[in-house]
Design a protein that fits this description.
This protein is mostly helical. It contains seven helices and three strands; from the N terminus they run H-H-E-E-E-H-H-H-H-H. It is elongated and about 65 Å long.
């Protein structure tokens, strides 16, 4: 138990450090204004057009860090700052989200797998811990009775949610790679602007990596609790 909490503490600390660094990076590169004068929305529309995608809309949504691609209604959703501003950070985020739209258009296998898991994970992530605790309360330690199998069910649900975290990694890294390749190949940014976009996207990707490792640590802990008992 002590080792588990120590590990979670380390992961939480690393997560905080990565998140803080990411915010500083985006604040820094938000001051690197694009030489072409294009806004995030214009960058997004240009990238979609260059990939022959004409059935995806670029829209503005409220909030910060609310940027995402919605495959259901085919929209690239950019936060207000990213949508309107004309800097390296906005270009990086806008191009990254369009990277997901390109993945969708090209039937990228990892994105399809991730999308297929979404309905399941929306349920499993909410219920897994409660199901495991229910198994514990039913006293599965007394033998392979109902409580044990309830706990196993909870573990399976948690494993599905954890797998989703790891499936997300190649999706996010690939979207960033597509974004950076397009920004560079189409000469959309200067060398300095490109370096800023690349640095920002790398730190954004690391937040997903830390989250996946945290989910794995939790899964291993509960696996030991359920299956490691004599």
């Amino acid at each position: 138990m002590g080792t588990y909490y120590l590990l979670l503490g380390i992961i939480a600390l690393v997560s905080w450090m990565v998140s803080s660094t990411l915010k500083r990076k985006f604040a820094k590169y938000s001051k690197t204004y694009l030489r072409n004068g294009m806004s995030g929305a214009e960058i997004a529309e240009k990238m979609l057009s260059d990939h022959g995608i004409n059935n995806v809309r670029v829209v503005s949504v409220k909030g910060r860090l609310t940027d995402h691609y919605n495959p259901k209604d085919r929209t690239v959703n950019l936060s207000e700052a990213v949508y309107h501003e004309r800097n390296a950070a906005a270009a990086a985020v806008a191009a990254h989200e369009c990277g997901h739209a390109v993945q969708h258009a090209q039937a990228y296998s990892w994105l399809e797998m991730r999308s297929a898991l979404v309905p399941i994970v929306s349920i499993s992530s909410r219920l897994s811990m409660w199901v495991i605790l229910a198994g514990l309360m039913l006293g599965f330690g007394a033998g392979l009775g109902l409580g044990y199998w309830v706990a196993v069910l909870g573990f399976v649900l948690m494993a599905v949610a954890t797998s989703f975290s790891f499936v997300t990694l190649p999706v996010e890294y690939d979207a960033s790679n597509r974004a950076l390749a397009w920004l560079k190949n189409k000469n959309m940014v200067s060398r300095e602007e490109y370096d800023g976009a690349q640095d920002a996207l790398r730190w954004a990707a690391r937040t997903y990596l830390v989250a996946a490792l945290g989910a794995l640590a939790t899964l291993i802990y509960w696996g030991l609790q359920i299956f490691g008992r004599d």
